[in-house]
Amino acid sequence: QVQLVESGGGLVQTGGSLRLSCTASGFIFSINSMGWYRQAPGKQRELVAVVTRDDSTNYADSVKGRFTISRDHAKKTVTLQMNSLKPEDTAVYYCNVEGDGRRSDFTVGYLEVWGQGTLVTVSS
C-alpha cells in the first residue's frame, strides 16, 4: 500500500514560522496532486494548499501570502512553509496525495491517501 509520513508541526507564537513535510512511499506509480488540509476543533476539514502534477498551486484565501507549498517530484515529497502564523491557524494538518498506485485490495488504479495528521498550535 501507499503510506504518507508527515513531519513538522508543533507549538509556535503568533508571527512565527513552521515547516511541514510529507513523503509518500510504497506502490504509487504517479502522483496527480499533493496537498495539505487542516481541521480545527469543531470545524470541518478544509483545504490549505495543493500543488498539482505541473506544479500549479492553489491556496485557501486565509493563507495566501503567508504559506508556500512546494513539491519534490523525485522524492515524492510535499512541503508547506508557514510564515506569519496566527492563532486561527491552529489545527491538525493532514497531508493528502492523489494518484495511481496499488490500493489496499491490491488492485491498481486511482487512489487517495491521507496522512495521520500533525498538530500545529499557534499561541497568542
Question: Which descriptors apply to this entry?
Answer:
mainly beta; 11 strands; elongated; 124 residues
- Summed up, the helix count is 0
Secondary-structure content class:
mainly beta
Low confidence ranges: none
Q: Roughly how many Å is the radius of gyration?
A: 14 Å
Helix content: under 10%
Distance between the termini: 40 Å
Count of DSSP strands: 11
Q: What's the helix-strand series?
A: EEEEEEEEEEE
Which whole number gives the mean pLDDT? 96
DSSP strand content: over 45%
Main pleated-sheet profile: 7 strands, mixed
Instruction: Write down the overall geometry.
Output: elongated
How would you portray this structure in words?
The chain is mainly beta and 124 residues long. 0% of the residues lie in helices and 63% in strands. It is built from no helices and eleven strands. Strand 5 (46-52) and strand 6 form a beta hairpin. It is elongated. It starts with a strand and ends with a strand.
Summed up, what is this model?
The protein is mainly β and 124 residues long. It is 0% helix and 63% strand.
Topology, element by element:
Elements: E1 2-7, E2 10-13, E3 18-26, E4 28-39, E5 46-52, E6 57-59, E7 67-72, E8 77-82, E9 91-102, E10 108-114, E11 118-123
